[in-house]
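Appendix B. Chain record.
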Amino acid sequence: MRLSREGISPLPEWGSEQIYFSATQWFSGLQHDIDAAKHSIYLQTYIFEIDSVGESLLKALCNASQRGVDVRVIVDGVGSASATDFLQQVLHGNHATLHVYHPLPWNWITNRLEQDDWLARFFERIMRMNNRQHSKLCLIDNSVAWTGSFNITYDHIENNGRGLDWKDCGVRVSGDRCILFNEFFNAVWNHDINLLSPYFLFHPITNFSPSLRKRRLRTLLQDIHGARQRIWIVSAYFSPIQRIINALKKASLRGVDVRIMVPAHSDVGFFPALASTYYADLLRAGIHIHEYENGILHSKHMLIDKTVIVGSSNMNHRSTLHDVELDIELFSEESRLIMEKSFLHDLVGCREITLENLSRFYAWLLAFGRIPRFLRYWL
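Structure tokens predicted for this chain:
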């Protein structure tokens, strides 16, 4: 139910918070909750692959639908492009519903909300190709939610034999605050920002509307400008807009401990080179930069003083300007200590970048990184 502006009241903190760094434990716990669902399962993801992980979750979703649970799934038209036909067929055959967010122009699956005029639909999809659905969410019975950086793919599973392990972070939360996720899912499902209540003015967890995009950025900048002790950032794809760079530099120059953890190895091959073009400017302001070498860093989270934020947003132009993202704040002291411990533990597996080793070892990377930097608005 959408709340009126007059009826707005502060939301309680989460009833429970549980943090996951293991994809095996994450998917096991998620499937357990799906199997226990009684009324509704609303799932949205960027990548849904038809592999052992995806097939297992898909079977659980279909079983839930067959026992009368309302099952709705949103996937991104680019991230899940190879799976949309199969998902459509299987979910529809089991009385569940699929919504493909901004399908590719040449993918002829018709969204529920699109007209049958294929030519108009083709050009409309071309215009929307740069805007993706990058958030990750599974809301169960409107009371339990799973969110973070995990996509639905076997690639995230530890020791899977496909090369370097992925480093991710996700959370399971519960309680009345899940009303935010219900409104968010329905707004994306219906492409209707009017379904978001005034709660989102006070809890800017997403950037789904232009006003919320500005609000979310403004809130982040206020947090950075207000930081007194620390700003610890973990970002899989680091290419921030200039306003964020300036805020981070000012924070460091006034004595805040600013540390940024980025991947040395990435699933998007050029991103370490692109990120390296920002290093010198940040280092000269006293900011510490650490490249994670123990795998593919895919986590997205921040600690700003005592504030803990976990979600799908990267510190890049795409998350700030183009994609639909979802981030939440954790409130418990236990969660804060877990995130602190994780960050400090991961530093052991990092190489710290300095102005000295930057000039010595990164000359070729800096040169190569200048090429995608010209395109950073879209990256």
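Further analysis of this model is presented in Appendix C.
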